[in-house]
Amino acid sequence: VQLQASGGGMVQAGGSLRLSCAASRRTVGNNAMAWFRQAPGKEREFVAAISWNGGRIDYADSVKGRFTISRDNAKSTVSLQLSSLKPEDTALYYCAAALRSWATADSTQYRYWGQGTQVTVSS
Hints:
With 123 residues, the chain is mainly β. Helix content is 0%, strand content 49%. The protein contains no helices and eleven strands. The strands form two sheets. Strands 2, 4, 5, 6, 9, 10 and 11 form a seven-stranded mixed sheet that branches. Strands 1-3-8-7 form a four-stranded antiparallel sheet, with no helix packed on it. β4 and β5 form a beta hairpin.
């Protein structure tokens, strides 16, 4: 499975972006999908995850109420709507697909990773 993330860019604090991740095959419809991010000099951290059918969604506390994850299994895509962005949201954002169906924040459960898309938020 190949994942292609897109939609990153530069915005001012308070702005919005929408990230998208396209999978190379439709069978990811059975897989949990997630977004992680990594800022310079920091470890990769969990952002949001969604179960195969959208039945369970988890968010990191730092993004709750500001970010929204969604998926379209017919199109094999997962999206992340970023709103009320803060400078501390600046990072390289990665999408990932798990071998399991239910959402988890555990990065070790994700088998496939995209190349990342850069989000930069200026103050």
